[in-house]
Amino acid sequence: MRSNRLEEMLRTIEAEAWFTAPLSGRSSFDPKVMEAMEQVPRTAFVPPELIAHAFDNRPLPIGRGQTISQPYIVALMTDLLELQPTQTILEVGTGSGYQAAILAQLAQHVYSLEIIPSLAVEAATLLSRLGYTNISVKAGNGHAGWPEHAPYDGIIITAAATYLPPALLDQLKPGGRLVIPFGRPHMTQDLLLIQKDLGCKLHSRKILEVAFVPMMDEDHDSRTTQGSA
Ligand code: SAH
Question: Residue 96 domain-assigned?
């Protein structure tokens, strides 16, 4: 049975989707996205002292200056990717691993890069403990993407980027979708949906304003830590 708090989170996401429809162009999300939001326990991804707030529709701190994103934004970004069960997705900014888990419910495999090695290890360990076998997490700078598994059907960047990393655009399949918060950190950014058409031409559309932690541009630690979950 769904808890009241989970139920409230799902209803809040639906209400926000409806309110932001004039900007986002979608008044409701794919039922499969909502099902993933119902099934992935956000409680497992927040620090123990914040469990009472796990279903609040807001970002929460996860340590090291980073956050787990707001559930509505996680649902919106996932919906924008229009995932299919055969698809391979790249995420930049693993953080807690929550967004990766949502994506993994809907796609075949999720590759996720995290610049802070300790967060990469913790997320990989948690995702593996939760039973995910279709998520690979690696510590590294997402600006370079993860060329070994490219091209990707979808790419999601969950930190604010001041430029569109060329490697990520290269690693997107023709026909693929990329979602990115674009703009200066510590202010609001434009959430962009970028589509690569079959002729490899890029089309960008602003969805709405969002506020993400900055995408860091230097290697946090040159030692890479790899884990599979
Ligand atoms: N998707 C996460 C939330 C991400 S917060 C979740 O569901 O919890 C943004 C994350 O991006 C942080 O963990 C931060 O360390 C990471 N990050 C910032 N710059 C990065 C970069 N260049 N490459 C990879 N990860 C980066």
Answer: yes
What is the H or E stretch that residue 92 is in? strand 88-92
Catalytic-residue membership of 69:
yes
Mean pLDDT for each 10-residue chunk of the chain (229 residues)?
89 97 95 98 97 97 96 98 98 98 98 98 98 98 98 98 97 98 92 98 97 83 42
143, 160 in Cβ contact below 8 A? no
> In this predicted structure, what is the pLDDT of residue 227?
47
CA atoms within a 13 Å half-sphere pointing along the CA-CB vector of 11? 7
- Amino acid 228: pLDDT: 45
Q: Does some domain include residue 215?
A: no
* Count of domains forming the chain: 1
* CA separation, residue 109 to residues 8, 103, 182 (Å): 29, 8, 25
In a domain, 220, yes or no: no
User: Quick one: tokens of 160?
Assistant: 């604010």
46 Cβ inside 6 Å of ligand 1:
no
The answer to whether residue 169 sits within a structural domain is yes
Tell me which residue has its CA closest to atom 4 in ligand 1. Answer: 95
- pLDDT reported for residue 1: 58
Lookup result for tokens 């598994």 = 149
Range of the domain at 89: 4-210
Find the CATH number of the domain harbouring 121: 3.40.50.150
Catalytic residue among 24, 69, 96, 136: 69
Distance CA 216, CA 29 (A): 30
Question: What's the pLDDT at 217?
Answer: 87
Q: Give the model's pLDDT for residue 207.
A: 97
Q: What one-letter code names the amino acid at 150?
A: A
